[in-house]
Design brief:
Helix 4 runs antiparallel to helix 5 and helix 5 packs antiparallel against helix 6. The chain has one domain: Alpha Horseshoe (Serine Threonine Protein Phosphatase 5, Tetratricopeptide repeat), CATH 1.25.40. A three-stranded antiparallel β-sheet has the order 1-2-3. The chain is built from six helices and three strands, in the order H-E-E-E-H-H-H-H-H. The protein has 151 residues and is mainly alpha-helical. The termini are close together. It is globular and about 40 Å long.
């Protein structure tokens, strides 16, 4: 069941945090977070070799967004080090700064699941789903996480 949750997270390619696009991947037990402006990251301000139409340059992050991002990175580091309670605390702090953010709620749900708090994980996943379009890629990933948590 825990592996199903992690497999769902492995397919996560974009997280939207307060208007900033981050590439977040989970592979072989490790998260990798790539900031905006990195070549090869979809919707990034950096040039890439694709023939797609140019993307608009993202707006600079404000102070709250930068703080949210820093806290999320700390949470991801705690998660990578199997410090799930610390990750949960960090993601809750990020959520206080950016309420109802589906990406933060998804990461919080995964951390809650890893600490054994399935009811909280289910609640977080459901709240994340309510903030996303029904058939969006993010919603599909979170639905898989919700299904794993409900088992």
């Amino acid at each position: 069941m825990k592996n199903q949750m992690l497999l769902s997270l492995m397919h996560l390619s974009l997280i939207v945090i307060a208007g900033a696009f981050l590439s977040v991947t989970f592979s072989r037990g490790a998260f990798a977070v790539t900031p905006p402006g990195t070549p090869g990251v979809p919707n990034s301000s950096a040039p890439n070799n694709s023939s797609a139409a140019p993307q608009a340059t993202p707006k600079p992050l404000n102070k709250t967004q930068r703080k949210t991002l820093a806290i999320m990175r700390k949470g991801i580091e705690n998660f990578k080090e199997n410090k799930f309670r610390g990750a949960t605390r960090d993601f809750k702090e990020a959520l206080n700064l950016n309420p109802a953010n589906p990406s933060i709620l998804n990461l919080l749900g995964i951390s809650e699941f890893k600490t054994g708090n399935k009811p909280a994980a289910v609640r977080d996943f459901k709240e994340a789903l309510s903030a996303l379009p029904k058939n969006s890629p993010g919603a599909k990933i979170i639905k898989k996480n919700l299904q794993a948590a409900e088992k």
